Fold:
Amino acid sequence: MTWDHERVEELLAGHVLGGLDPEDADLAQQALLEHVPGCDRCRRAYDDFQAVAGDLALLAPASEPPDTLGARVARVAAPSRRRTPVLVGAAAALIIASLTASNLLFVRRLSDSENRGERMLSIVSNLAAPGTSVVPLTGPGDHRVAMIYVKGLKRIVVFATYLPDPDGEYKVWLFGPGGTWSPGTLRVRDDVSTLEIPTDPTLWQFMTITDEPHGDVPTPTESPVVSASVSSDE
Amino acid sequence: MVGAVARDSPVLHTRGVAESDLELVRRLAVRDQEAFEDLYRRYVPAAYGLAYRVVRHPHLAQEVVQEAFTALWTAPHSYDPSRGPFRTFFLSLTHHRAVDLVRKEERRRNREREANPEPLVDEDVAETVVEEAALAERRREVREAVETLSPEQRRAVELMYFQGLTQRRIAEETGTPLGTVKTRILAAMRKLRERLT
Structure:
């Protein structure tokens, strides 16, 4: 696809303000993947627009919140008595309490299981659990990849079946308002590959996987193998 | 407790020097609660003011801000310092959360907006908190920059940023062609970029 800088900047301006309609939002994500990283003009515009969008927040008058908010937020960072590091503080505990036992079991099984059959069984048997979102990642090839997140849990699990051997390594990327982050690599082992990402899915707008020949790079250098939007509708 | 010290500003440590946002965010990576509380004190007035401006409900605004701080505590690595200051990252994060929420409640918001239309810049804003000087200065600069926009550009930015409307909804609401809305938003952002970056 050939990108027109003017059109890309128009998309980026709407994107950073959170005001694109769905069709333009998809186009903006495509531009962010395919064009912006390699275009100095559009990358600078994107960074500057993001800065402007952050500054616009200051038009709202600063206001002291009720003290109850301070107490609630303090509990978020309170030391957790739970073993699972992702379950931080009382706020998370409240969320967890509302989850079904099967959801929790699912995530823990994915964490713990080393056995290929057990991993596969965990995935398949819990796809229909309440609160679980399964989002296929699509691309030009025939890769079978999906991400799973469970409502309320600060964790994304990426899984793939029968991945071909990469030229380099399958690097997972997340794109959000704060920038780009690679939480790790999807390693090809057995028939099922999984990567657990300890992050809040609502922080991110887009996930993509690239086959990176040179390993540790700060931003994607190759075209996406597969990609998908991360739903913010938690 | 965070709430008990929320009015102290700026954040001073034993060396008598306020730590940079970046230092504090780095400390979050090792689960440093004091750093988290320092960032809370520093940014909660701006974040709460923003959330309240968008969602127009104190309880919902608290939900938004709590979510934003929870996200920060859970995933401090999502902030990439090379992309700009922490302030813009965190307030953008808060804004996204607020807009997500407001879209879910769009019907209720429509009724309130019709009853209470607002300008982009509050002319007689009485700040209810004392902010750090740098943040207060930046606030002044942003207001001045917004004053350079045309009324139509300001209105478009207001509807999109603070009311959470998409471009198509702005076009419907203002009776303006969609292409014109897009052009206005781009022109406004370019003008603000010139003044602010």
Remarks:
- Residues 81-114 of chain A have pLDDT under 50 and may be disordered.
- Helices of chain A lie at 5-16, 22-34, 40-56, 67-76, 89-97, 101-112, 116-126.
